[in-house]
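request received
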Amino acid sequence: MDDHLFHRRVVSGDESALGELYDRFSALLYGLALRVTRDRVAAEDITQEVFAAFWERPLGFDPARGSLRTFLATVAHRRSVDHVRSEERRRVGALAPRLFERPHDLEEGVVAADEIKRVREAVAGLPDALRQVVELAYYGGRTYREVAVEIGVPEGTAKSRIRLALRRLAETLNEEAL
Amino acid sequence: MSLDRLYLDLLDEAPVAPPSGGRARLLATAAARRRPAATCVAWARPYAGRVAAMDAVFASATAWDVEIVEGWNLQELLGHLMAKDGLVAAAVGAPVHGPPITDDEPMARTAAVHDHERSRSLLETRRSWRDQADALCHALSGADPARMITPGGLPLPVGDQLLGRALETWIHTHDTAVSEGLHLPKPTAEELHPMADLCARLLPATALLSGLDLGDRSIRLTLTGDGGGDWHLPLAPGRPASGYGGQQVALTLRADAAEYCFVLGGRGAGYTWEAEGDQALAADLRAAAPALSGP
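response:
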């Protein structure tokens, strides 16, 4: 799976490429939208819209500037935040329409501001052996191989520790959120 | 940022499947938002793909009135593509969109389409251009790609005519993307290779058209990157190109496949060819290469 090739196929109007992208990323985007909106219908609509918008305007993505996964997730996150804000506005009513307006640049990226705190706390709460590999791989930007060398274990061990840590983190966040 | 990647990786470890039926719903919605490439015979797919790519650039285009190339804005550029696509359509018996063809000289036909489209909106012209392109694709299912036709006076087999249309659509899509500040990705290797093959086979003709007398020599052309290949090209008229198979040649040229296509399409001013052998011949061929490109 290569972002450049997917991008070329979508630009060339190849529908099967869009189907493959859906198979690959829909659960990620739906899960992301669900965490932000807590609304299954909204999360499904957002997932659909992210893919449809990418299909309609694929030149909005430039593979030189980042991965397709991050691009799609960023759009999904932005739309999810927009949904939550418009729901809040609707609940508050027309009396205070500007109460929840915040500039978008505070919310760029794929993680909601309140979620950042939860992720960091969940990482801090991992057992030492798992916390160490996550901190090296993600906060320190090391490759699996570099992590393995640094902590003196085979690469496969480092890789499986990281995956175990990711699953633990996902479980922790799910228990808190959903 | 590192936390983005961590967050997406951990969500990937705990995926939440959306309700079933979403994939089919998406494909239906997407097709209505931007038409997929027309379904067509394999040898016309590079053309169908470039038409869909032009539509994708259009979808992101905002400067509708600026000159893109040849003094044309976006509507006039689409009119020009539609005019030339229509000449091929007429030659293969496909429906012709826009005004009836009275003069099949490409620039005269372009002017007639421009006159017709001037009173219409850009979106209407976009639809007519796309309808013409798709009608051409659909009409090819029973066509013989080897049959010689001469739309606008250019004699080439149907298959090569379609590759020529693919190439011109690509070049003008690139022109539009540059004008809009958009980055247009290359065609896929499957789409690019047949266009590179056409451009390889046309190289001797560009030299001939430029009045070069190259004698009974031949060259090896190696195109690298996606869609590339290796050709043996006799330079004397009437001798067909073939895959390179170790023949003695006067010159070996090496270039990137996409860049080579752009040189033949008249957009390769900055691209150089690596030449091994007769350097004077290499310079002559490079200078003559854009001879078939026009508006």
